[in-house]
Design goal:
single chain; UDP N-Acetylglucosamine Acyltransferase, domain 1; 4 helices; 38 strands; 27% strand; lipid biosynthesis; coiled coil; lipid metabolism; repeat; lipid a biosynthesis
Length: 345
């Protein structure tokens, strides 16, 4: 596929500066782009690469236009422009049409129009696949699970019984939705399993990365609301609720029965405790540990930046002395107070 700059500009809402009839067929970075490719500049630290780029065109903001040696698509949000052009030039293969002969589909399953089901997939009794659903090879769809229209599952996704997934969702390979939550009762040192009787309910336009796990609820459902995006290798425990349009990066975890608000951003390796509430519009930076309710929107951090091993050893040695240092400070405060009292007398 190739598009002229004029065609792309109309698609992404940009203004062409230069030759609007130039054609491009793929995306590349500023430093690696060649003729026939389009690049973008949205991060100021890459601005020095702009002058030497060999791209046929660059998506950029108005303040960078004077430094651009080639054709430009000018818009206020170049990163959004990049996203739209990436969709336009997407090379991701489409699923093979139809139902593969090796797929196992129970007769009571309900299959909509234009559904594709890959090799060795299993669709159990009472499952419902709406129109336009794509089920990748090796997927498992449990009893009475429901998947909304135009949702796509890549290979080896497991959707347990009674899970509900909305429309226009994208679920990457090896993700598990609806597995048992971590529910056990202890009696005399022995663990008794508590059956997890809830389900998972996922809204519309949700994207879930590879090898992510979302546990079913113990009694109430685990709920992922519309527009949420989850990265790879995330753990969502039972009865968690995640509000609309919240984004969560790789390897972060949310413990059971926690509620996350709308429009939150959770960076990588963040740990969120169970049975707490986080309000809307919160940002947690990498390695943050959230242990209590967050009632005020804002940016929160607790991870320590990396330092040299020598600096870390010195700091750690001082940390070990904090208790004794604190006792010495308290003793000095008492001595000063006594001296002041004697002086006043």
């Amino acid at each position: 596929m190739s598009y002229t700059l004029l065609e792309i500009a109309e698609q992404i809402g940009a203004t062409v500066k230069g030759d609007a009839n130039v054609s491009v067929n793929s995306l590349a970075t500023l430093s690696r782009a060649s003729s026939g490719q389009i690049a973008f500049l949205s991060n100021a630290k890459y601005r020095q690469q702009l002058g030497a780029t060999n791209a046929s065109a660059v998506i950029l903001s108005p303040d960078c236009l004077d430094d651009c040696p080639t054709n430009a698509l000018v818009m206020e949000n170049p990163y959004m422009g990049y996203a739209l052009v990436a969709q336009l030039l997407d090379t991701t293969p489409r699923p093979s049409a139809g139902i593969h002969p090796s797929a196992v589909i129970e007769p009571s399953a309900i299959i909509g129009q234009n559904v594709t089901i890959g090799a060795n997939a299993v669709i159990e009794a009472g499952a419902e696949l709406a129109d336009g659903v794509a089920i990748g090879p090796g997927c498992f769809i449990g009893q009475h699970a429901r998947i909304g229209s135009n949702t796509k599952l890549w290979a080896n996704v497991s959707v347990y019984h009674q899970v509900v997934i909305g429309c226009d969702c994208l679920i990457q390979a090896n993700t598990v939705i609806g597995s048992d939550g971590f529910g056990y009762a202890n009696q005399g040192g022995q663990w008794l399993k508590i059956p997890q009787l809830g389900a998972v309910v996922i809204g519309d336009r949700v994207e879930i990365g590879a090898s992510t796990t979302i546990d079913r609820g113990a009694l109430d459902d685990t709920v992922i609301k519309d527009g949420v995006i989850l990265d790879n290798q995330i753990q969502i425990a039972h009865n968690v609720v995640i509000g609309e349009n919240t984004a969560m990066a790789a390897c972060s975890v949310i413990a059971g029965s926690t509620e996350i608000g709308k429009n939150c951003t959770i960076a990588g390796m963040v740990g969120i405790n169970g049975h707490i509430k986080v309000t809307d519009n919160c940002v947690f930076t990498g390695f943050a540990m959230v242990t209590k309710n967050i009632n005020e929107s804002g940016v929160y951090s607790s991870g320590l930046p990396v330092q040299s091993n020598k600096e870390w050893q010195k700091a750690n040695a001082r940390i070990r002395k904090l208790d004794s240092t604190n006792k010495k400070i308290k003793a000095l405060e008492q001595e000063i107070l006594a001296l002041k009292t004697n002086a006043n007398n």
